């Protein structure tokens, strides 16, 4: 750096230092709610890392991210207003200290989950490369994150795909309350070398060293040399969080470390040695203080979010899709697997921002559904390692950066391996950013009992997903519906989990034309009836239709409703049917306890109470894991006979 550049860096660091000190004071005064983690002592990392960054470069950050977002260009007043929970904050008071974001500035968010920003950064880097503009991603994380699976999955995928991302580790020597040497048996540089990527080690107290080192790193990443890990050694002056008494640190040792590695002191001494006057430095320091004073005045004067807006920004606006006519009789009748392949191919043809990614998808996936798509769409059907968190994070980051990813989770049972990226990232980011972010991604997955797949490959887990606000959950029962729902899901601006039933893959139905779309959140009355309403979804719809035929022979006229979409739930269609039949049976493949059926039953005895002429009966699997032995599985799962028995029960009342 020349002296002017170093002086500029000193000014930026001074603003961050004064801001963090003010935040600490305000938090102690209860002017800032929640949790606060300050980065005092780490200012040179943020400013140096982003000194040569472009406006269109993207960053992901950590729970200790105030310095990063300020260094990327977020106004101090909007940062402080956000921390104080004000409507003028960067996220309209929805994010707070741990979740500050502004995608318009390339700030994809600080993150309250350790390591969670790393897979998102990989997705953003994939999108940056797809745009071919030479932009890069810098993903900040602390030394504690290297123990997380997200770190390893993200670095591995980035290395495999040679993505333009810098993994910037601020190593302050402590993972929350524990010393790094007590947490990590292998030094951080060795971890990166194991994935075949270069490591650059920098003095995180020296803003000039960090900026100069990062200039070269960013140039290399932009040239397509693949990801690079930077380890910057730094000092965390305050505790893990504001209020932490730091009993795990020796006070004298800490004071000595802070004195020796204060980035503002080191930079000030260097500027004086270069002939910069005390007066000039004092002016910069006064300007930093004035900036923070103005930010506090602005934040205190700002209004709180209107109480009426508490439920805003959970979902992106969804266009109204009218229910289309069913496909004409002359349309081809083919298997659901082929219809899904056609829907994916048509989506790839229609929109260059769509891409597919997942385990073995380029080769056709485990069921052959994507076979041939990679050859027809080079570079847009991408195999990934067996890294479910990285796959989901890839989808989140790429969607935030403007693409429309369709990522595959091989089995719905594997949801637990990657739940954070769906539950805490995809589902919440629009809300936590006050509507500034959209996450238009689709997660395709499949499930199904009935073929002795055992306890870890047979689970129907839609209730878990339905309980997460921000997600849309779709479960088609036919190939025709799968086409219309999948095309609508890919074009939707919300994260959609699209759950297919593998035992329906070879069931045949009409292949719609490419314009066919079905509305998300709209149920379908597949069989009108007058005596009892049977509500089902996915394969249970076929069982319900079989049951309805048996009941018809007994003089019972059953109406069968296919929910199609679990979230949003079409309460209106269900209640309208219930108002006519006054009896309800709910058929689900999942275990009955605590499931979607319980929500429907609650609806029947709540807003539908005056239609209730008999108890609502739920049909589903027994409350145990799925057995392996066929004889046991048949006892465990529910089918058409169980639905018939339930309908007879409610008709007898």
UniProtKB/TrEMBL annotation:
Keywords: Oxidoreductase, Thiamine pyrophosphate, Tricarboxylic acid cycle. It comes from Aeromicrobium ginsengisoli. The keyword Oxidoreductase applies. GO terms for biological process: tricarboxylic acid cycle. It holds the Pfam family E1_dh. Residues 334-507 form the Transketolase-like pyrimidine-binding domain. Its EC number is 2.3.1.61. This is dihydrolipoyllysine-residue succinyltransferase. It comes from the Bacteria. Its cofactor is thiamine diphosphate. SMART domains: Transket_pyr. One of its GO terms (molecular function) is magnesium ion binding. InterPro entries: DH_E1 (IPR001017), THDP-binding (IPR029061), Transketo_C/PFOR_II (IPR009014), Transketolase-like_Pyr-bd (IPR005475), Transketolase_C (IPR033248). It catalyses: N(6)-[(R)-lipoyl]-L-lysyl-[protein] + 2-oxoglutarate + H(+) = N(6)-[(R)-S(8)-succinyldihydrolipoyl]-L-lysyl-[protein] + CO2.
